[in-house]
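quick one, 286 residues, struct below
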Amino acid sequence: MNLTAIVLSVLPLDAGGGGESWPHKVMDIDWASHKPPAAPGVSVLPPEAGGAGATVEVICTDPNGGTFRLLSLQRPTIRSLRYAVRGRVRYEGVRGRAYLEMWSSFAGGGRYFSRTLGEAGPMKQLTGSSPWREFVLPFYSNDKAGLPTELAVNVVLPGRGQVEVGALELAEGASTAGAWWTARQDGAIGAIGGVAIGLIGALVGTLGGLGRARRLVVALTAAVALAGAAALAVGVAALLVAQPYQVYYPLLLGGGICLAVFGSLLPVVIWSYRRRELQKMTAMDT
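---
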């Protein structure tokens, strides 16, 4: 029985990883009321039969490409430091690595961008041709920068191509005001928790494999399983009271893993020690 291998196969914990959800819609952005700035190659198309609304079409015939402004939103009513613009896009005959981008401007003069330059998923680059697909342009601000004073969305083409963008939606993550801890503290919690659980797992595996320190091994295994159950319960509570991602995710992930691994390991550990005791008694009798 290799208890160390069982425990270490799921550790260390990655409390800071994962994706982001955008549970709160701030506003819908339809092209009938938010028309893009007039520019060559940019036009608003009427809704298709059965379509969800008007779309914006960008046609670039210049082999050198260009940047086409779709939206400029002044003082958006965002309350969270984590927000995103999302929608649908389709494209045809796009040369090179084109992308959608969102610029966030702040009162202190800072300007930062988010771009769809990924290889897959909703942040995938625009290359070649594609039917309608989802996209997202997220941004993660901080307490120093604060909330944006302006958001701008562009289509950037390095060469010729045709891009069509549907209605947009501005959404935000759970508010970070009143968070139990910050995103930076979340990383520290994940690192410390992962190392601690990994060391406990190694100790349990080593001592359990040797059949020594029964009380210590059983107590440690039970304690980590109980701690996992408690963390899982607190994570569910954090989710119910709308704590941000960096709060509920490490609790749910770490608690779930600890409860599942050490909870299932506890009867194995107890059975292993009992088997060793029976083997010793049998050897003494013979």
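The two ends are 25 Å apart (CA to CA).
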